From TrEMBL:
<dbReference type="InterPro" id="IPR002347">
    <property type="entry name" value="SDR_fam"/>
</dbReference>
<comment type="similarity">
    <text>Belongs to the short-chain dehydrogenases/reductases (SDR) family.</text>
</comment>
<keyword id="KW-0560">Oxidoreductase</keyword>
<dbReference type="InterPro" id="IPR036291">
    <property type="entry name" value="NAD(P)-bd_dom_sf"/>
</dbReference>
<dbReference type="InterPro" id="IPR045313">
    <property type="entry name" value="CBR1-like"/>
</dbReference>
<dbReference type="GO" id="GO:0016491">
    <property type="term" value="F:oxidoreductase activity"/>
</dbReference>
<keyword id="KW-0521">NADP</keyword>
<protein>
    <recommendedName>
        <fullName>Short-chain dehydrogenase/reductase</fullName>
        <ecNumber>1.1.1.-</ecNumber>
    </recommendedName>
</protein>
<dbReference type="Pfam" id="PF00106">
    <property type="entry name" value="adh_short"/>
</dbReference>
Length: 324
């Protein structure tokens, strides 16, 4: 892409950013606010929510009137974040937030959280799988922490999704699962795709896509990392371990959407993923070009979509569907 092409692409992004800013300013109509028709209050769980975009997603959902369970590994940071949302909320807002410890990379922690959610709230209505890590910044592309990245970003999301779907409360409005992902994880991305054309085709083909296929891809990548034989010609060239983890998140979102697609009315669960963009948070070394508030917007929008607009197994950015 030449200089003019880059400038045109930048202008398109800025134009869409301005459009979304205007959309965010529009209040939901009473008939669109499905969560207001539930009693007791709709429950939303946000993972990794003590800071950054997870905190913003929790804050925005709470301001919209849902009861938010803000989760984090660190108790002090999580409790401080929950208290901050309550303290900074406008006086007229009916804000309800609580903190709960959760480490998505620990199966026992996820199991304990699920048992608590069932006992305390009888289930949930919204799950935002935000918890994630990335150890590369700027031009870096180390895979030294690949195991931790994959364990948190992919297996953690998978663990939470599998544990929470049985706890989704029946409702005429449906429940929602929103997975935070990235354009870096697109199977057929123009600049960061995997080199194995056969694997790309299988991941994008619903008839071939399976949990086994996704997990075998992850296993092969990690095995090559351990052996020192991985190559950026075979795997995404930028932030390779992070990109592979998000490629798996995208594929698993599509896979789960298939299993949920035939649920009867009153038991619908809508699952989608989204790319927040390059957000100014600790994960990006504060080098992003949008705020955490802007980055969280599409995820919150998906969590609150009116049931008549319910979408399933799609990938979004800036409130628009994009390709996998």
């Amino acid at each position: 892409m030449g200089k003019k092409g880059k400038e045109a692409a930048r202008e398109r992004r800025e134009q869409r950013r301005r459009e979304v800013t205007l959309l965010r300013a529009l209040p939901y109509e009473p008939h669109q606010r499905w969560w207001d028709h539930l009693s007791p209050r709709a429950v939303a769980v946000v993972t990794g929510a003590n800071r950054g975009m997870g905190f913003e997603a929790a804050r925005q959902l709470a301001l919209h009137g849902l009861h938010v369970v803000l989760t984090s590994r660190d108790a002090a940071k999580g409790q401080e974040a929950a208290a901050r949302i309550l303290a900074e909320a406008p006086g007229e807002a009916r804000v309800s937030v609580e903190w709960r410890q959760l480490d998505v990379a620990d199966a026992a922690s996820v199991e304990a959280f699920a048992a608590w959610a069932l006992e305390t709230h009888g289930g949930i209505h919204v799950l935002v799988n935000n918890a994630g890590v990335n150890f590369n910044k700027g031009p870096d592309n180390s895979v030294d922490f690949a195991e931790q990245v994959i364990e948190t970003n992919y297996y953690g999301m998978k663990r939470m999704t599998d544990a929470m779907i049985p706890l989704m409360k029946p409702s005429p409005y449906g429940a929602r699962v929103v997975n935070v992902s990235s354009r870096l994880g697109r199977a057929n991305g123009r600049r960061n795709r995997i080199g194995d054309a056969s694997l790309r085709d299988k991941l994008l083909n619903d008839d071939c896509l399976s949990e086994q296929l996704i997990d075998e891809m992850i296993k092969r990548f990690l095995e090559q990392v351990r052996q020192g034989t991985w190559s950026s010609n075979q795997w995404p060239q930028m932030y390779t371990d992070y990109s592979v983890s998000k490629l798996a998140v995208n594929a698993y979102t599509r896979l789960v959407s298939r299993t949920l697609s035939d649920r009867p009315e009153g038991q619908k669960i809508y699952i989608n993923c989204f790319c927040p963009g390059w957000v100014k948070t600790d994960m990006t070394g504060w080098e992003g070009n949008i705020s955490a508030e802007e980055g969280a917007d599409t995820g919150v929008w998906l969590a609150l979509l009116p049931c008549e607009q319910g979408t399933h197994g799609k990938f979004f950015a800036e409130r628009r569907e994009i390709s996998f």
